[in-house]
Amino acid sequence: KSxxxxxxxxxxxxxxxxxxxKVMNDMGKLILGPKFGRRQFNYGPSFWYTVLRSYASFKxxxxxxxxxxxxxxxxxxxxxxxxxxPRWMTHHGRAWGGEKMVAGLxxxxxQVLKHSPTELGLDEEF
Length: 126
Prior knowledge:
Layout: H1 5-9, H2 18-32, H3 47-64, H4 68-84, H5 87-90, H6 98-112
Helix pairs in contact: 2-3, 2-4, 4-6
C-alpha cells in the first residue's frame, strides 16, 4: 500500500549524528549493561527490574543535564532501546511500578518537546 499525501506530510526524520549516536548508545548501555551490542541474548527473568534500575539512573542523569538538545538525545536513546527490547513490558512481577516509569518518560518528552527545533539541535526541514 502506498502512503497518501496526508500521511507523507506527517512523517518526520531524525538524523542520528555521531554525537547523538554516542548519547543513544550510552542509554542502551545503561539499560542492557554488558549485553549491549550483542545481536541476540537471553533476557533474564528479572530484566524488568534491570529496566527500572536503569530508569532510576537515567532520571538522575537527565535532571543534571542542562543542555536541552542532549536531553532530547537521552530521551530518544532511552526510549529507542526500551522499544527495541520490549520484553520488560510483558515479563514482570506484580505491582512492579513500570507505569510510573512510562508516565515519567511521557512527562519528560512533553517538557523537552516544548522547546524549539533550534534549541533541540534539529533542522526544521526534517
